Amino acid sequence: MSLDFQLQQQLDVRKVQSLYRMRRTASSPQGVELEVDGQHYLSFSSNDYLGLANHPQIIEAFQQGLSRWGTGSGAAHLVTGHSAAHHALEEELADFLGYPRVLLFSSGYQANLGVHQALLGRKDSTLHDRLNHASLLDGAKLSGAKLLRYGHTDVNALERRLSEVSSGRILVVTDGVFSMDGDIAPLSAIANECRCGGATLMVDDAHGVGIEGAEGRGTVSGFGLSPLEVPVLMGTLGKAFGVSGAFVAGSEALIETLIQQARTYIYTTATPPAQAEATRKALQLVREGEDRRQHLQQLIARFRSGATALGLNLMHSVTPIQPLLVGDSAAALQRSRQLQKSGILVAPMRPPTVPEGGARLRITLSANHTFEQVDRLLEALQ
Predict the structure, then answer these.
(1) Nearest residue to 108 (alpha-carbon basis) of 276, 258, 244, 252
(2) Known catalytic residue at 146
(3) Is the pLDDT of residue 236 over 90?
């Protein structure tokens, strides 16, 4: 039996189970109105929470960066790829977040793998929220450390898990905002458990930075926590910032350790310096973006109020991620297709991205949406 035959059988099973995924091809820039596969849609499927992915000032900064730096970095950061633009962005992000230092990574996935691999070994333990992002779980497995998972946002379960660890370094890891549920981790309580249990806390705030906290500093800032309480902070630059890449914020010792030991940092080409220049402009817009964040909160309130009035099975979330729980994968796929026929794009989320029986429509709001567009979505859902 050939490999292709075996693979095709597995693909056919996924189709029968309504778990087969298909790529869409966009032929317009990212925005709330999107042209996909030749059709025009009102999109509620993007992580462009502040609507910066096609912002003219960021485009201009990117173009100026291209004129100065060219199209590529040419090498890894530790060879000749670390430019003055990268360095300035790291310093500006550190100032923004209130951390001693920041290290840039090419993606959030690489950042999460790199942190786990650099900090943990077989004699160590890492404790994860059960709904943490796949990149965090993959990082834990890559590290070789003992992986213990606790119930979603269940601080008592975390306490019990911590009591099971008697030696080695302990890294507790949680999303700040959970990407599929849209809820926020109880970071103050988790930080307290880490302090009592002698553990280090890492927060993946990919969906919180730019949105939560003062000036969009994220969930850690929103809870009033310091770098001492959250020594490892990861964030991405391709969501609220509208660009690409990721960072890890931490102490001088942490960042130097990652530079020396994180394989996903050492052995990959640095992102283009022009991209760093664009991200510097995006950071400025994020810091000045209180009007955008306020409008986004108004959109969230309007959508939740309307969904409640319609009796929709909306999961609890105060973030731009508004999941409509369906349960069955085939039903979620069918509802997504029905919305698509109405000219609205909402992605169905199915296992293994979400737990079995937890298929949903993952509705995401952007600061570029209008109240009228949210009302149109509600009419289509009805």
Answers:
(1) 244
(2) no
(3) yes
List 207, 281, 295, 369, catalytic entry = 207
Q: What is the amino acid identity at position 153?
A: T
In whole angstroms, what is the distance from residue 327 CA to residue 324 CA? 9
> Does the pLDDT of residue 32 top 90, yes or no?
yes
Q: Averaged over 11-17, what is the pLDDT?
A: 92
* Beta-ladder partners of 322: 363
User: How many Å apart are CA 53 and CA 331, to the nearest integer?
Assistant: 31
Q: For the domain 56-287, what is the CATH code?
A: 3.40.640.10
Indicate the CATH number for domain 24-50+289-381. Answer: 3.90.1150.10
What percent of the chain is modeled with pLDDT above 70? 100
Tokens encoding 131:
């709904």
Instruction: Please pick, among 43, 45, 179, 329, the residue that the annotation labels catalytic.
Output: 179
Confidence at 370, pLDDT banded by 50, 70, 90: very high
Model confidence at 221: pLDDT above 90: yes
The residue extents of the domains of the chain are 24-50+289-381, 56-287
| 123: pLDDT strictly greater than 90 | yes
Q: What is the pLDDT of residue 189?
A: 98
Evaluate the CA torsion angle 278, 250, 170, 183 in order and state its sign. Answer: negative
Burial 343-373, CB ≥16 within 10 A → b, else e: ebbbbbbbeebbeeebbbbbbbbbbbbeeeb
Residue 1 has pLDDT above 90, yes or no: no
From residue 318, alpha-carbon distances to 151, 208, 312 in Å are 21, 11, 16
Q: Is 210 left (phi over 0), alpha (psi -120 to 50) or beta?
A: left
Annotated active-site residue 28? The verdict is: no
Indicate if 207 belongs to the active site.
Answer: yes
- Whether 24-50+289-381 shares its CATH topology with 56-287 is answered no
Query: Active-site residue among 239, 281, 295, 369?
Result: 239
When pLDDT is averaged across residues 81-98 and rounded to a whole number, the result is 98
